[in-house]
Design a protein that fits this description.
Number of strands: 10
Largest sheet: 6 strands, mixed
Strand order of the largest sheet: 6-7-8-3-9-10
Shape: globular
Structural class: alpha/beta
Number of helices: 7
Distance between the termini: 31 Å
Oligomer: single chain
Radius of gyration: 17 Å
Helix content: 25-40%
């Protein structure tokens, strides 16, 4: 079994063609101080095992959208449901629990903790939900191997290049086999060869686990791995022709 693949019982309805989408977004709207409306009337469904790429001009709200999907920011209008759970019905404690258990997020800024080893950084999502430190450590090493950082688990962030830090961030986002995987420019700091490897890993994690994947990118090469490519604008999402 692949290091990325979940056991069959965890496949979130992958073998159920009539299963509801893992991510369901309805009539989402968001404005920022100014005031300036980023987008409105935004609808999106992402099913099990489906990877969606979102492109758009700088400043249109792509990163803001990902933060809303993760429950880190709030929309002005509309709703977001993950695996049937409406984020709007949850208090902050419940949202935090949902993020820990069901969401993997690759941030542009990495957020690798400098006082933890790389193994501890990657294992963090597991350590937050399970007392089995040995299993978390083993799984973290597997993920470091998968992103090409085998044997580096005892190292620290200060020892790594920007591209290597990006790979650690990706390993951490995927380590707990989340139901929803969000990525903000996941290959922005990587050379072409490493970017191709990471994109393959990302796609395998989505499709192998029956997760829902949403990736924001400026790269056509990155977008090409997606099942659908959507353009974000002021009036929501529009599917790109020929994608």
């Amino acid at each position: 079994m692949s290091v990325l693949a979940a056991p069959p019982k965890l496949l979130h309805g992958l073998d159920m063609p009539d299963a509801p989408p893992l991510l369901a977004v309805r009539a989402l709207g968001k404005s920022v101080p100014g005031p300036r409306r980023l987008f409105r009337h935004l609808d999106l469904e992402v099913g099990a095992g489906e990877l969606v790429a979102i492109i758009g001009e700088s400043g249109v709200g792509k990163s803001t959208l990902l933060n809303i999907l993760a429950g880190l920011d709030e929309a002005d209008d509309g709703s977001v449901a993950i695996d049937g759970i409406d984020l709007g019905t949850l208090d902050e404690t419940a949202r935090t629990r949902l993020r820990r258990e069901r969401i993997g997020f690759v941030f542009q800024a990495f957020h690798i903790l400098p006082y933890l080893t790389l193994r501890q950084n990657v294992a963090l999502p597991l350590a937050l939900v399970s007392p089995d430190n040995a299993a978390a450590s083993t799984r973290a090493e597997e993920m470091l191997d998968a992103v090409g950082l085998d044997g580096r688990g005892n190292g620290y962030a200060r020892d790594l290049s920007g591209g290597e830090l990006q790979r650690v961030a990706i390993a951490r986002a995927l380590v707990h086999r989340p139901a929803l995987i969000l990525a903000d420019e996941p290959t922005g700091n990587l050379d072409p060869e490493t970017a191709a490897r990471v994109l393959s890993l990302f796609a395998d994690a989505v499709r192998g686990n029956g997760a829902a994947g949403v990736m924001v990118t400026h790269s056509d090469a990155s977008a090409a791995i997606a099942d659908r490519v959507l353009t974000l604008g002021a009036e929501g999402l529009v599917e790109r022709r020929g994608a």
